[in-house]
Design a protein that fits this description.
With 472 residues, this protein is α/β, with parallel strands linked by helices. It has one domain: TIM Barrel. It has 15 helices and 13 strands. The strands form three sheets. It has an eight-stranded parallel beta barrel, surrounded by five helices. A three-stranded mixed sheet has the order 6-8-9, covered by helices on one side. Strands 12-13 form a two-stranded antiparallel ribbon. The two termini are 25 Å apart. Bound molecules: beta-D-fucopyranose. Beta-D-fucopyranose binds next to loops.
């Protein structure tokens, strides 16, 4: 196989999430999620942007599926809006909400596109936040109930399931730095929320399996960081270790290995005694997984901070005077050298290779999927209305080549989902940052595939990466 050809079974997909694209926030019984509330709170998002209309995918899903089909994509990862199917976060489901997802899935299947469902991509029903949110243990039980409802409704036609998307962002940005909904800035709540998200994953995986055909697969998507020390000095290595525990170990420790890292307990001892970890929780969290989803954009570069330096707060998704990282004021984040995307994120495809190989070593035999990877650029249509985005093509080529290298080195990577199918609501950045392979005109909502969409479509159809400068 040539270095740019992928196995014939490799899945070529694109990803989105409900609040970022659906709109229709008050239709068919949907109630507000924490993101509706947060985005409508002055000062929380760029330009006061919100997802009320987003890219109107709720009404245009057929066109969006047709777009994917035209490009030749084989898979589509999307998320379910919890408050659309279970408005108060508890009790019976709203059939109209579930029907939307049934129609979407049927449309995908009719076009031979494999659906991959994410149950939770950050949009907690507001009523559950009012009852305490993720720092409250009951939220994990509510999630399990919701997982069962969706598993029962769609388990007959969706094989690939993802419980949570990037629980780090839910906990550390939602309850730590507050740049994401619900916008709380409480270090202990951040750690407690992390544990309850882990518990939600375990309970949710069990609930899904109790109602779904055995052929279906259950995974979760972690934004596992590749954490690099600035130097090999002991203090910098210790700083990298601490961030690795807080970024990765806090989730994959209990989920993949049934235990939190001891070093995480030590590092956070002055804040919390972790008494919210109850007997039996670790066994519940440590459910067997069928696959692991890795989301990767950029690596982290860290060092020990000097004694009088509290350091810039790297969180990637927005600036805050509050650090997302509990108990890490002694760590300094650095901007790695080299090119950056419009998010200011440095471009380093080898970080993806390193991440894949780490999990290949850590959980040998567990199939891996890249469930998100992509880049924002300031795309603009030219005089003919075409959108050329050579930087995105270079980004995708670079990262896919590293995926291919990892496969050649023995990693079991089964598929790749480009973030994102469409330009969409990029959380705290609103509509300012465009991650789509398909351009969206936010006045007319017209969709125009960028050159990268054509480039990626050709990769999907042929299983081989086109040249970086091939003209589309
Ligand atoms: C990830 C999120 C996704 C999008 C990308 C850019 O962390 O899962 O929704 O915001 O970043």
């Amino acid at each position: 196989m040539s270095p740019v050809s992928f196995p014939s079974t490799f899945l070529w997909g694109a990803a989105t999430s409900a609040y970022q694209i659906e709109g229709a926030v008050r239709e068919d019984g949907r109630t507000p999620s924490i993101w509706d509330t947060f985005a409508h709170t002055p000062g929380k998002t760029a330009g006061g942007d919100h997802g009320d209309v987003a890219v109107d995918h709720y009404h245009r899903y057929r066109d969006d599926v047709a777009l994917m089909s035209g490009l030749g994509l084989g898979a589509y990862r999307f998320s379910i809006s919890w408050s659309r199917v279970q408005p108060t976060g508890r009790g019976p489901a709203v059939q109209r909400g579930l029907d939307f997802y049934r129609r979407l899935v049927d449309e995908l299947l009719a076009k031979d596109i494999k659906p991959a469902v994410t149950l939770y991509h950050w949009d907690l029903p507001q009523e559950l936040e009012d009852a305490g949110g993720w720092p409250e243990r009951d939220t994990a039980y509510r999630f399990a109930e919701y997982a069962q409802i969706v598993g029962e409704a769609l388990g007959d036609r969706v094989e690939q399931w993802i419980t949570l998307n990037e629980p780090w962002c839910s906990a550390f940005l939602g309850y730590g730095s507050g740049v994401h909904a619900p916008g709380r800035t409480e270090p202990v709540a951040t750690l407690c929320a992390s544990h309850h998200l882990n518990l939600a994953h375990g309970l949710g995986a069990k609930a899904l399996r109790s109602v779904m055909p055995a052929r279906n697969t259950v995974a979760l998507s972690l934004n596992s960081s590749t954490v690099r020390p600035l130097t090999q000095d002991a203090a910098d290595l210790a700083a990298a270790r601490k961030i690795d525990d807080l970024a990765n170990g806090i989730f994959h420790g209990p989920i993949l290995h049934g235990a939190y890292p001891e070093s995480l307990f030590t590092a956070t001892r002055q804040l919390t005694d972790w008494s919210y970890v109850q007997d039996g929780d670790l066994a519940t969290i440590n459910q067997p997984l069928d696959a692991l989803g890795l989301n990767y954009y950029t690596p982290a570069l860290v060092s020990a901070a000097g004694p009088d330096h509290s350091g810039p707060r790297a969180d990637g998704h927005g600036a805050s005077e509050h650090s997302p990282w509990p108990a890490a004021d002694d760590v300094l984040f650095h901007q790695p050298p080299g090119d950056r995307t419009a998010m200011g994120w440095s471009i380093d495809p080898t970080g993806l290779y390193d991440l894949i190989m780490r999990y290949e070593r850590e959980v040998p035999g567990l199939p891996l999927y890249i469930t998100e990877n992509g880049a924002a650029y300031d795309d603009k249509p030219d005089a003919e209305g075409r959108v050329h985005d050579p930087e995105r093509i270079a980004y995708l080529h670079g990262h896919l080549a590293e995926v291919r290298r990892a496969i050649a080195d023995g990693a079991d990577v089964r598929g790749y989902f480009l973030w994102s199918l469409l330009d969409n609501f990029e959380w705290a950045y609103g509509y300012e940052k465009r991650f789509g392979a398909v351009y969206v005109d936010y006045t007319t909502l017209e969709r125009t595939p960028k050159s990268s969409a054509h480039w990626y479509g050709k990769a999907a159809r042929t299983g081989t990466l086109p040249e970086i400068d091939e003209v589309f």
